[in-house]
Amino acid sequence: MSTDTLTNEAKRENAAMLAAALGIGVEAAGEALQFEVAITADPTDATATAIAADMASLLGRTIRSATLGEADEAVVLEILIGDVGAKAGRRSLRIHVGSEGAVIGGPHVLCLLVACHAAAATMQAIFQDRLPFGSSPLRVSFDQFGIEPMEFEAPVDIGHAYLAGAGAIGNGFLWAARHLDFRGTLDIADDDDVSSGNLNRQIWFTKDDIGLPKADRLAALAQGSFPRLKLIPRRLRLQDLPEKSNGPWLERLFVAVDSRRARRIIQREFPGEVFDASTTDIREVVIHHHKQPTLHACLSCIYEADQEEFTREHHIAEHLGVSAEEVRSERISDPAAKKIAARIPNLEASALVGIAYDTLFKQLCGEGTLQSLEGRRIVAPFAFVSVLAGTLLALEVLRRRGAKRGAADCNYWRVSPWHAPRGRRRVMRPRQPGCEFCDNPVKRCTLGRGWSEPPNITGVVEESLQFDFG
Ligand SMILES: [Zn+2]
């Protein structure tokens, strides 16, 4: 796949990310991404060919071209998967599969996981020491996930669940979950439309989807891959859905929204069980899970307001000519749109209403309209990072479903795309003192009773934690 499938806006998003990572200008970064790789896999090895196809999809969203098969003269790196020979004199990156029998004939979702890490390794091979992640050999070992092999084939009944966010991680989640046997109903809540700058990382979407509602397009594109999971598009943010109530209305929730603040707002709905994935630009993926009743961290504890968020909001407000309070409201209001249009040339106020501040700001950064960049968190990650987050989110469902031991002992896992996943980095994050949700006993007491007997995904072991309000 080549980046001909990408719009100029999507290419600029990639360039802005690389620019932030390398500490160079956006234009130079855009040029640095214009390289080609060829991917060659052992055709007799189904695992190798699956990884190759996934890598081509992921890298095709990031660099100029990632083609399967024969390498032409323009290729700067040949990626060799499985038992294939290198071309004499050409630089190559070799990916061994199944050296310990873990991958051979392995589930496709694990091939996708390897492809995400292999895409990161490809970038590392090209940019070497300029990327600050180190370049030791990367070994993805599946015993780190705590999932029994038979779990990959078994049906996973998620009941009636919600997915908050049909952006990069929501796309990645369904991109990975299509290799699993998910069943039930999934409402996909997102009020945003696909924009041209999304195509670098929202893996289901193509140019044909630009301007259309994300929730509708994701449900329509993915449904064919989920014969037993009904996908229902909802063109609203989760907290705006009409079925929302003060009682326990949200049994199970997958969180794939795009900001820390949005996660805290979602926590106010008091979801019964939360599967959450987030990215910290291209450095890291965070996986969080909790199920009420819990004594441990909620979304608001994990994503508490921090100095970087505060600084960034003020930075955005200053550049756009609005107040920080307006930026915190997330979406651009009618009066705010007029102020922004008055401040920044060539913007039409009517076209700005309803857009997320982060989205507009990213767009303006990519276009070089705003020169300085406060904090890298605003920059959109590469496709393989968002898809890694979505894949780990899907795997977390399997892990919880089949968990015999240990799953209840941790609620937080940080995984770097640039290093091997390590199960022992899972931790149990405690409640955060001053959490806007956990430190509100009235809210917990009023809303929480409904979750005194939380529903289970079929097959999940009970967590024996105490309910703590009152
Ligand atoms: Zn909390």
UniProtKB/TrEMBL annotation:
Entry-linked Pfam families: E1-N (PF14463), ThiF (PF00899)
Residue ranges constituting the E1 N-terminal domain according to the UniProt record: 10-147
Glycoprotein in keyword set: no
Highest rank taxon of the organism: Bacteria
SUPFAM superfamilies named among the record's database cross-references: Activating enzymes of the ubiquitin-like proteins
Transmembrane segments: 378-398
Keyword Nucleotidyltransferase among record annotations: yes
Domain THIF-type NAD/FAD binding fold: start-end pairs: 162-436
GO terms, molecular function: nucleotidyltransferase activity; ubiquitin-like modifier activating enzyme activity
Key words of the record: Membrane, Nucleotidyltransferase, Transferase, Transmembrane, Transmembrane helix
Protein name per the record: ThiF family adenylyltransferase
